[in-house]
Amino acid sequence: MADAQPRPGGRTARVREAVLRATRDALASGGLHGLDLTAVAHDAGVGKTTVYRRWGTPTALVADLLVEMADRAGDRVDTGSLLGDLEVNAGRVQRTLADPEEGGLYAAIVAAATCDARTAAALEAFYDRRVAVWAPCVEDAVGRGEVPAGTDAAAVVRAVSAPLYYHRLTRTTPPGEEDARRAAAAAVVAAVAGAFASGA
């Protein structure tokens, strides 16, 4: 898979923004199989040679889109408590999945990842980045004595998002605010009980 290119400014940045917007729209409407580089170039209003030269494959487009989505997702918030931090995280995930455009886009990417190894690798890299942003809130909680030493910070963060994604992918209605609060609370209870500690 081609690596995502550096993200310069100026015209190149405008081209990338237009192409990734067209990619988002194509994925949301037709999934990975509906992602055609020539059509993306047309919808973005750029030359198809530019798209083929810079990205080359639909999977490379998805990978770069995931980089852009990770960049836009925002930094962690430090509320001073593990529950507060994870509630913020869960709320962001819930609002994204409940958004008609964003939720549909994530569903399309996850569906594509189940049958395309390169898309799966790009999706894994995206979530690794997002988990790394929020893992320090668990590490801080260890330092405060809220959860046991040796708690797997990444596992706790994933435990917050997992039920929300499961809801989005298996229900006809998106997850709500109460679902987000419950996901955060459940992760905290499990972490406090030592479920995510080494040797648990």
TrEMBL record:
Pfam families assigned: TetR_C_11, TetR_N
The entry's DNA-binding region: 36-55
Entry keyword annotation includes Transcription regulation: yes
GO molecular function, one term: DNA-binding transcription factor activity
Signal sequence residues: none
Source organism superkingdom: Bacteria
Residues in HTH tetR-type domain copies: 13-73
Record-linked SUPFAM superfamilies: Homeodomain-like (SSF46689), Tetracyclin repressor-like, C-terminal domain (SSF48498)
Keyword field: DNA-binding, Transcription, Transcription regulation
PANTHER family listed in its UniProt record: HTH-TYPE TRANSCRIPTIONAL REGULATOR RUTR, TETR-FAMILY TRANSCRIPTIONAL REGULATOR
Protein name as it appears in the record: Transcriptional regulator TetR family
Species of origin: Patulibacter medicamentivorans
